[in-house]
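Quick one, T. Sequence first:
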Amino acid sequence: MKLKTNIEDLIGLGHTKLGFFKEVQEKIGELRKSNRELKNERQHVQAILDSITDIVAVISPDYRIRSVNHSFFDIYPGADPAGGLCYDIFRGRSEPCEACALREALAANRACRQDSIVPVNGRNRHFSITASPLRNTKGLPTDILVVKRDVTLEKEFQAQYYHAEKMATIGLLAAGVAHEINNPLTSIQGFADGLQRRMARLAQIIDEDALKSDFKEYLDIIRKECRRCSGIVQSLLTFSPRKTTELSRINLEPLIHNVLRILHHKLKNYPCDLIRLDLDTYLPAIRGNAAELEQVILNLVLNALDAVDQAGVIDIRTRVENDARVTLEVADNGCGIPTEDLSKLFEPFFTTKPVGKGIGIGLSTCYHIIKAHGGEIGVDSVSGRGSVFTVRLPVISESGEP
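Structure tokens:
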């Protein structure tokens, strides 16, 4: 049976098609709107990540970097992290790190935290690293969100604070100990001087020359050791906060020559070209205490002498930095200082010398004196290749102001 299609049927079919196309257009409009919202949301999230001063990176389980925020390029300028291996980009390694926060976060499926010191552009930076897993709908980790915070300055300030606190405590202790030692020491030296004055009369009574010689030698040793102990006591008193230093206008060059005159007898045992001077003849004046600065120079030169052998060389250099600071350098090509000891050099009673060779207050005294003068003291050393101690002191104007 053949059915006839009338005009009403045709109108109904067209109307149906028009309704379908209209619905499709509405869906397309909704999808476009949703895409714009997603794009805006993505840009908003990226703007939030870029405003964070810490490095934020998304890393895959195979150590590939998927994305980073702008703070990455502040610390690693010129690097191209996309698709790179995290241990290569962040640490310049050819294989994964032994202690890896990312691996721990994947294994435990929870946030892990780690502190590390990493060389970046020739400088050691201290990072606090947090690795957090990004989970799928089943709760399994897919990627890792790594946040690296540069805490180098905080660690440096913290170390300075602890050092200052330790110095203050040592100062109070040293002042008390020094006063307790000073009293019997004064008595010993006084009685030794009294015996020394009576040696002429004792020589008339004692006929044995060997006995007289022994008496004289023993008294000389007692008086010499008393003077040495007095010097140690004075060094301990340098840590005491009660001590005030009188500063005056002085030049550094005469102090260096005076120290070398003091060491003249000791230097006779070394080659004549052991110490080389490179002094700026137009060195400006500084504000300081001559006796204390001589003590600093003396300590640095004596340490250099202990570090070099008969074939070693010690360079003493002075120069001006930016017309604002006078710099003194005492460099040697001796045994150097182990890297692990560099941060402890200026701590009281720490020494790298053998037992009986030092008590560890020389460099601590230098540190305290230079800080009291408004200056800085630092060291650069490589074990087996020598050390360079650098002292910087502020220059003063004609009016006497720094």
